[in-house]
Write a structure and sequence with these properties.
The chain is mostly helical and 354 residues long. It is 75% helix and 0% strand. Helix 4 runs parallel beside helix 6.
Length: 354
């Protein structure tokens, strides 16, 4: 009896072509989307610096940039507009990447630093410094940085029971946010009107006090944290598949998770220390980046989206109403609230709302 030799099954030519076309489209999207976002950041940066209540021509911009003194214009460009635009870009990148790390790591679109209490920790610490010790400027930024780190450490330790679970960390963080908000409200009711108004300006998230010193400190933090985030991004993709799958890929789950939390907290804390708790940037950037990438978000994309949001929102806040400069946090808060409602509605519609 002759043995029947089975020929290996091969995919139809049409299916193979479709897979190759999908992979090619995915590779193109991974390159093209960040490139377009980077171009958008450059355009928004140029609009922010050159236009507005005081406009500059491109030749004047470069003449001032290379050292020529134009009375009035040099001060406005070099001491106001340019440092403000630089800090806006940097905090957008920091908040955007921090939010994307938390949302991906915890597999929860609500798990951004301003929802789970880290930004509130920075706010409470900064308000304590302003109200109780009369602090200002860099001291407030240092207090905010320390407060964010301490609250993040407390949230991590309290939510760690046999490993950090996403829902437990989010719930503990929301509890801390409520406590920190109550502390801020208590302190504001116990101080005089002038001090309370200073604290409120900081709490709204504002770029009004931007300076080159503050930009330099923020840049140093990002120079350390952004490469660390880039190195850990491959681990983050593994953790996104679940703890068991990540362990199967050889990832040391708890160590990798702790390292990612440290980097994300550092980015959020540094950005908050520079400009205050600018609302919803960390929350918005990740989901928008994921939509732009058709479900495959990267930290780079989220950071660029964050920069675009901050630059656009601060330009609108400074120029929307003649004679009135709205803090950037007011504009982003107005944008973020309806986005939060939309996200909750669409998440529940597809069964992700918990």
């Amino acid at each position: 009896m002759n043995a029947v030799v089975e020929t290996p099954r091969t995919a139809p030519a049409g299916a193979a072509d479709a897979v190759r076309a999908a992979r090619k489209l995915g590779r193109r999207r991974r390159v093209l989307t960040p490139a377009l976002l980077a171009a958008a950041v450059l355009v928004l940066f140029a609009v922010y610096v050159l236009l507005g209540t005081y406009t500059f021509t491109v030749p004047d911009f470069f003449r001032i940039l290379f050292g020529e003194q134009i009375p009035g214009a040099t001060y406005i460009l070099m001491e106001s507009k340019l440092p403000r635009a630089v800090i806006g870009t940097l905090i957008g990148v920091g908040f955007g990447i921090a939010g994307a790390v938390f949302q991906t790591l915890l597999r929860n679109p609500l798990a951004s630093p301003d929802i789970i209490g880290i930004s509130y920790g920075a706010s409470a610490s900064a308000v304590c410094a302003i109200v109780l010790f009369g602090a200002a400027g860099t001291t407030v930024s240092i207090a905010a940085l320390a407060g964010a780190l301490l609250v993040a450490l407390a949230i991590y330790l309290l939510s760690r029971r046999g490993g950090v679970a996403g829902y437990r960390l989010v719930l503990v963080g929301i509890g801390f946010a409520a406590v920190m908000q109550a502390l801020v409200n208590f302190l504001l009711t116990r101080t005089d009107i002038r001090t309370a108004s200073e604290a409120l300006v900081w709490l709204n998230g504002s770029l009004n006090n931007s300076s080159w010193d503050r930009a330099a400190v923020l840049a140093v933090f990002l120079l350390v944290l952004l490469p660390a985030a880039a190195v850990l991004s491959r681990t983050l993709r593994g953790l996104e598949l679940g703890d068991d799958a990540a362990a199967g890929l050889g990832i040391r789950v708890e160590t990798a998770r702790l390292a990612l939390i440290i980097v994300a907290v550092g980015l959020a804390a540094a950005a908050t220390a520079a400009a205050g708790p600018v609302a919803f940037i960390a929350f918005l950037s990740g989901p928008i980046a994921r939509r732009l990438m058709h479900g495959e978000a990267t930290l780079l994309t989220a950071g660029l989206v964050g920069a675009c949001i901050v630059l656009a929102a601060d330009f609108v806040g400074a120029n929307l109403i003649p004679g009135v400069t709205l803090p950037v946090g007011v504009v982003t808060g107005a944008l973020g609230a309806p986005f939060l409602l939309w996200l909750l509605v669409t998440s529940n519609r597809v069964g992700q709302g918990g």
